[in-house]
Structures are given as C-alpha cells and as structure tokens.
Amino acid sequence: MPAKQRQNPLTQKAPGLDKVSTLLAVSSCKGGVGKSTVAVNLAATLMRTGAKVGLFDADVYGPSLPTIVRPANTDLFSRNELILPLDYEGMKVMSFGYVPAAAGGSGAAIMRGPMVTQVINQLLTGTEWGELDYLIIDMPPGTGDVQLTLTQIIPITAAIIVTTPQELSFVDVVKGIQMFDKLKVPTVSVIENMAYFQCDACDKKHYLFGPGVRQRLVDQFGIKNSFEIPLVPDISRLSDAGTPLALEEPDHPVAALFRDIAESTITEIRRLSEGGAGAPQMRFVIGRGLVATWPDGREQDIAPADLRRRCRCAHCVEEMTGKQLLDPASVPDDIYPTEIHPMGNYAVAINWSDGHNSSIYPYDLIASLDANA
Ligand code: ADP
Question: Domain residue spans in the chain?
Fold first, then answer.
C-alpha cells in the first residue's frame, strides 16, 4: 500500500515525482560506512519482491552509483522537459555521475551548500520516475545544512540510517535521528554495517569494533528495527564489479539479511500509512501526574517520579554495563516535567523539575508501565 506523503509545495508540483508512492532516504553521518551499498542492495531486494523501484544518488561530490550499478545504456534522453532515468535490470537509476560534464555533471563538485541543494532537487524532481512503489534516495553523507534542506524540500516518507559499530557511532546515529526528527521524518531502521567478521575456519562472529549500539537504540529511542551486516569481501567484490550482491547472489546469507531489512521497511511504511506508530499524547495534570492519551482514547496515568527513576540516559545508567547510577531515593516524589516533546515516532523526551534534561522514553516502555503505577 502506498505510504502517505508529507505535503510539500515544492515537490508536490514536481511532475517527475508525482507517481512515486514512497520516498526512502538512506543516510549516514560519515562517508565510507556502506550507505550506498545498503541503498543499492535494499533497492534490488525490494525490486525482487515485485515492487517498482528507483534509486537516486544524491551525492554530488562523490557519486558512487555509476560504479556499483552499470546500466547497459548510459545515454541520457529527455521527454517533455524531464530526463528519462537509466534502466538497470528493471530498476530506474539516476546519479550526477551519469550527467555529462558539459551539462554540469562534474561542475557540481565545486558548488557550495545552497546551490548544491538546488541542483540535487532539480535532478531529482526533473527526472521522469514514472510509477514507482519505492524511490530510494542515497543521501549525501552528513547531517549538515545540505542534508537538512534536502529533508525539508523532498517529501521523504521515512529514513534508514547506516552506521558502523564504533563507540562514537552512537552519537552519529542520534544526530541522524534528530535531523530527520526536526522535519517529522521517522527513522524506521538503523543498519550497523561491517558489524562483525566471520572467518572461513570458524563459526564465531568476531566483533572487531565492539558490540555496537543496537540495544541502546531500542532502550533510548524505541527503534526496534536494527540490523547487523557483516564485513564480507563478496559485498565489495560485487560492488566493484557493478553487480549488487542482492541481485547477483540471492542465496548469499547477506542477501537474506537484506530481505529482512526490506520486509521490516515495508511493514514500518505500512504502519505509518495506517496512522503512524500509535504514539500517545502526553501531558502533565496537577493532582494526576503524567497522562498518556493513546490513539484509541484510553488514558494512562503515570507517576512522574516513577518515570524519572526509569531514565536510561548515560548519567543515570552506565552505558556499557547497564549498571544503575541514579539513586532512586534522590528523585523527589513531587518531581514534575517542565517540558515534554515527541522524539521521533517511537519515543518521548522529558525535561524534569530536578534539572535533569532530555530523558528519553520509548512508547513501548510507557505502554508497559502499570496504568496505576
Ligand atoms: P558510503 O556510501 O557510506 O560512502 P559505500 O557503500 O560506497 O560507502 O562503501 C564503501 C566501501 O566499502 C565500498 O568499497 C563497499 O564495497 C565496501 N563495503 C560496504 N559495506 C561492506 C561490507 N559489509 N563488507 C565489505 N565491504 C563493504
């Protein structure tokens, strides 16, 4: 079922995008983490389910699509002032790497922020994508102005964030979630790429960069769909050969992982199109405490002190061991929230009267609390 799109005056009028049901942004904070690899393999996997799929490489400075997929014909043609996308095995693809230098292809590399955004939008909306179930947008790496403006002007349905499992990458993922969050684009999954290595001689998964951040994402943001992709030489070998693994070797264990990612993405998009993630409205009522009103009208009362004591932030719980640092007795029973605001589609952030800010509570946690606690 096509997902609902945000209303956007700029792209609403864009003839190239008017038959596209779902725009999925694949994003990362840094380059080289495998964002394009995930974008192309997800696109290929969705296509194998029978969906009509397009892939747009929004990286002006380092377009990688022309390396990782090689359409038989790379000549560009236009019709009714729109560029026709190239065809790769049934997937519609477009990248600055396909645009000849004379038409601004390589000239893009010297442009600055606002112009870059304009040019990306022009190529995206000036391409005749036709009827598509999914258009995957391989975003430029980073969470700066270019990415923020793109998120503002493109009616993105949902985002997928790609990272690697180093300790610092949690900060990157949070930056990504917050960037999309500012513009009400839900992050539907996080992919930890190059998460582990499995050598030929043993079955053991070697977590070269540590255990990763997936559990913290569940605890702090309620993002349940997170996936690990191993470091596999076949991925880079096939990328370099211009044939994505998901198409070339569908029986490969990594192709199965991409099927899981595609399935969860389809489910989340459907959930969003059917009315969102079931987020409650939360407010503070003197004499009652916190009141969560769920979409079905049910009201749930929550004792503020109880919720404050459940904070899982780095000040309250030791990140690596999960050991409680907050002394529950230090939280006054009469504590109250000074600010409540939704955090993505799956969690709420609360500032407290004891000066503790941005405690994040996934809606799943709220739902699991005893209504009379
Ligand atoms: P980004 O888009 O984030 O810059 P790429 O998708 O271009 O990153 O990937 C960078 C390099 O790493 C490419 O050569 C790619 O083939 C390789 N690569 C990506 N993911 C994996 C993986 N899981 N295992 C092995 N190589 C990978």
Answer: 15-273, 281-368
Per-residue tokens: 288: 């009652």
Report the nearest atom of ligand 1 relative to the CA of 239. 16
Residue of 336, 329, 333 whose CA lies nearest to 356: 336
Q: Please state the φ and ψ torsions of residue 116, each to the nearest 5 degrees.
A: -60, -45
Task: Pick the atom of ligand 1 nearest to 59's CA.
Answer: 2
| Tokens read off for 344 | 């993505």
CA-proximal residue: ligand 1, atom 20 (nearest): 34
Q: Write the residue with the smallest CA distance to atom 26 of ligand 1.
A: 236
Residues 49-88: pLDDT tens digits? 999 999 999 988 888 999 999 999 999 998 988 999 999 9
State whether CATH 3.40.50.970 applies to domain 15-273.
Answer: no
CATH 3.30.2020.30 applies to domain 281-368: yes
Assessment of whether the complete model's pTM goes beyond 0.70:
yes
> Relative to the CA of 234, which ligand 1 atom is closest?
25
Rounded (5°) CA angle 176-179-181:
105
Distances (CA, A) of 33 to 95, 103, 145, 342, 351: 19, 30, 20, 29, 33
Mutate to test the pocket of ligand 1, among 67, 69, 236, 258 (most ligand atoms within 8 A of CB): 236
CA of 33 to the centre of ligand 1 (A): 6
